[in-house]
Write a structure and sequence with these properties.
Layout: H1 9-12, H2 29-40, E1 54-57, E2 67-69, E3 74-78, E4 84-89, H3 98-114, E5 119-125, H4 128-133, E6 142-147, H5 154-163, E7 180-188, H6 196-212, E8 219-224, E9 229-237, E10 245-251, E11 254-258, E12 263-270, E13 273-280, E14 286-291, E15 296-302, H7 310-318
Parallel strand pairs: 4-11
Antiparallel strand pairs: 1-11, 2-3, 3-4, 5-6, 5-8, 7-9, 9-10, 10-15, 12-13, 13-14, 14-15
Length: 323
């Protein structure tokens, strides 16, 4: 995007094998980066008002049915094996200490400044407080930074999705009056801890650099090649906010949608499939669903209060679903 770390038949011709489906969590870093970069690039547009949280865990089972789970007040969606694949969750009560949060953000920004749009990098911070003593994310010494390309041409955005085998995300067939395409992005997935050979080699390289360093430098970076995308984002503008509506598509099977404390959730029907609708009384609403034929989870986030009615948002979501 020149802008963040941590966005159907045609794509089937470029589909990926099952080994492309992996466990990932884009809960905080990705959404945080989107909000941070949008704030810096508003240029007269309003930045995001809302910071919803979504996580996608990817594997290879298919969604078969949706069921409400009334005991906890949350909605759960089960597959044919009785496994939860889509659910609402409470907002996270975990917050990083200010010292840790500020330090991680400082290093992350340093990494992004050396990246060109479209580049992915792994980095290690040589700091005992970050890696051993803070009590939070000490199990993940290797961090990742990505600076996406911002595709302002809809045609270029679609071309990049095909080139990178990204989850297909087309512009909705229905757009409310005043809403139009703004830009799109695709996101790769860096080596994960379960990919032992790749991850261990990467970790070893960075640790060697850190341990052999003779100066007081604490940040060690290695740029990574990538070719496959795992997430796609499409941004819609209302001429005042370039990210008034965000649509996300990610290879995944288990989707967690945060239900705000001052909001509510319910199941709704989208053509031949059901979805979860989140009503946020102090911000925009959200719709999330899962396409079992493509193993892609979808979400639409509205980032301005009273921008769309529930009926309009539902109609937009339905226009994205093929019969």
């Amino acid at each position: 995007m020149g802008a963040v770390i941590d966005s159907n038949e045609e794509l089937k011709k470029h589909s990926v094998s099952d080994d492309h489906f992996r466990n990932i969590d884009i809960t905080s870093n990705l959404r945080h980066d989107i909000n941070m970069m949008q704030h810096k690039k508003t240029s007269g547009f309003r930045s995001f008002k809302r910071k919803t949280v979504m996580s996608i865990v990817v594997s290879c089972i298919f969604l078969a049915s949706f069921t409400a789970y009334a005991a906890t007040g949350h909605i759960q969606i089960f597959n044919s094996k009785g496994e939860v694949v889509v659910k609402t969750v409470d907002p996270s009560t975990t917050t990083l200490p200010a010292k840790l949060s500020n330090s991680l953000e400082e290093y992350r920004q340093r990494v992004l400044t050396i990246l060109k749009p479209g580049e992915l990098a792994a980095y290690y911070i040589k700091d005992d407080y970050i890696n051993k003593l803070n009590g939070y994310d000490t199990a993940n010494p290797i961090k990742f930074g990505y600076l996406p390309i911002e595709y302002r041409s809809y045609e270029a955005f679609l071309t990049e999705q095909v080139r990178t085998s990204a989850p297909l995300l087309k512009k909705p067939g229905y757009l409310p009056k005043g809403i139009s395409f703004s830009y799109g992005q695709v996101f790769p997935l860096g080596p994960q801890r379960y990919e032992r050979e790749k991850y261990d080699k990467l970790e070893k390289n960075l640790m060697v650099k850190a341990n052999s360093s003779k100066n007081k430098e604490k940040l060690f970076i290695e740029k990574l090649d990538w070719s496959k995308a795992n997430d796609t984002f499409l941004y819609l503008t209302n001429a005042k906010n370039r990210g008034a509506i965000i649509i996300h598509a990610g290879y995944g099977l288990r989707l967690s949608v945060t239900q705000p404390t001052n909001g509510s959730s319910e199941k709704i029907q989208l053509k031949h499939m059901e979805a979860i609708y989140i009503n946020n009384k102090t911000g925009g609403d959200e719709i999330a669903w899962y396409d079992s034929k493509q193993s892609i989870a979808y979400s639409i986030w509205v980032n301005e209060e009273d921008l769309l009615s529930k009926k309009e948002l539902q109609k937009m979501a339905e226009s994205m679903i093929t019969d």
